[in-house]
From TrEMBL:
SUPFAM superfamilies for the chain: (Trans)glycosidases
Family: Belongs to the glycosyl hydrolase 79 family.
Coiled coil: none
InterPro entries in the cross-refs: GH, Glyco_hydro_79
Stated name of the protein: Uncharacterized protein
Organism in which the protein naturally occurs: Tegillarca granosa (Malaysian cockle)
Classification via PANTHER family: HEPARANASE
Length: 357
């Protein structure tokens, strides 16, 4: 919703929002949720709407939605990264009545500005970790000021802001940031991650011709294999000689709704940020069959490749416009080899984890 339509006293003019809601209803559109404004703490060319005022405006929007579209999700305040002054804006919004109007608090996250990023930054564990304190801030203040059950969402996120970095955020190397962000977010209790974006800029899942970038295939494979139940990192014993900070892995119950895997299966996913191949031993499953889904560049451009292969098979849309079958694992046993600067998924069908039943 446009939060800059205001009356003389500074309060939000809801008339345009009401028209948009009614129009959407007349067309039968089913919207996932509603939000009032985008990054209100950094409006350019306008006076910034104060957090206390925006908080009151969210109550007005909630009342409208209850009348016209009962049960709608309302999320906000949709601020930029939770650093510096943005943290105070986020807190002041939640201190106001808007904290009782939203279903989820939202903030945005990027690892930095595209103009300052180089190739190795996409592989830097310290840079990947800069998401952690921002999630912790969002969770802390949401718990403090919002009703119990209010979720925390990453309302907009990708690798680098400024519409991405050409030749990097639309290439294979961007997958390290994306996959790690999905893993960290789930591990730290983020309920929803909203990718910026599906199409457009240099960080879209689709390129300017409408064909998949590497992150598209990574996202699709994630949605197929990874279930919503997150497992404790220590539940799966992994041994390798690679420095721990360069091996970043996460564990979930396997998604059995989109695959033929059975209850009790688990999916381990992550990356090798080292140039050296990593031999990973799953000590609890020494004799078990393991299903490997390894995503690699499928041409000679390496990390800056715009093409990706799955277990050596180049991925592309078929001639009749369909998505190829991705559930084609390579069956391996311990150790699982993750080559240097590569990422992927390992499904353990025989894990038989009670928590996944």
């Amino acid at each position: 919703m446009n939060s800059l339509l205001r009356f003389g006293n500074g309060s939000w003019d809801m008339n345009n929002a009401v028209q948009l809601i009614k129009y959407s209803q007349s067309k039968g559109y089913k919207l996932a949720g509603w939000e009032l404004g985008n990054e209100p703490n950094v409006y350019k060319g306008h006076d910034v709407v104060s957090p206390s005022q925006l908080s009151e405006d969210y109550v007005k929007l909630r009342n409208i939605l209850q009348q016209l579209v009962p049960g709608s999700l309302l999320i906000g305040p949709s601020v930029t990264m939770l650093v510096g002054k943005t943290v105070q804006y986020f807190v002041d919004f939640l201190k106001g009545p808007g904290s009782n109007a939203i279903n989820a608090s939202t903030f945005h996250h990027y690892y930095g500005y595209e103009g300052n990023f180089n190739l190795l930054d996409f592989l830097n564990p310290k840079i990947l970790d800069n998401l952690i304190p921002e999630i912790n801030i969002a969770k802390k203040y949401t718990k403090e000021y919002c009703p119990e059950g209010t979720q925390v969402w990453l309302g907009e996120t990708s690798s680098v802001w400024g519409e991405g970095k050409p030749g990097y955020s639309d290439r294979y190397v961007a997958g390290f940031m994306w996959l790690d962000k999905l893993g960290l977010s789930a591990q730290l209790g983020i309920d929803t991650v909203m990718r910026q974006d599906f199409y457009g800029g240099q960080y879209g899942l689709l390129n300017s011709d409408g064909f998949p970038n590497p992150d598209y295939w990574l996202t699709l494979l994630y949605k197929l294999l990874v279930g919503s139940k997150v497992l404790n990192k220590n539940m799966i014993e992994m041994k390798t000689k690679i420095t721990p900070e360069h091996l970043r892995f996460y564990t979930h119950c396997t998604n059995i709704k989109r695959t033929n895997y059975t209850k009790g299966s688990i999916t381990v996913y992550g990356m090798n940020l080292n140039a050296v191949d990593a031999a990973i031993y799953f000590d609890q499953y020494i004799e078990s069959e393991l299903h490997l889904y390894l995503l690699e560049p499928s041409d000679n451009y390496g990390l800056t490749s715009g093409n990706v292969s799955l277990n050596g098979r180049h991925l592309e849309i078929t001639e009749n416009g369909n998505i190829p079958n991705l559930l084609t694992p390579k069956v391996v046993r311990n150790p699982v080899i993750i080559p240097g600067f590569r990422f992927g998924f390992v499904v353990i069908p025989s894990a038989n984890k009670n928590i996944c039943y």
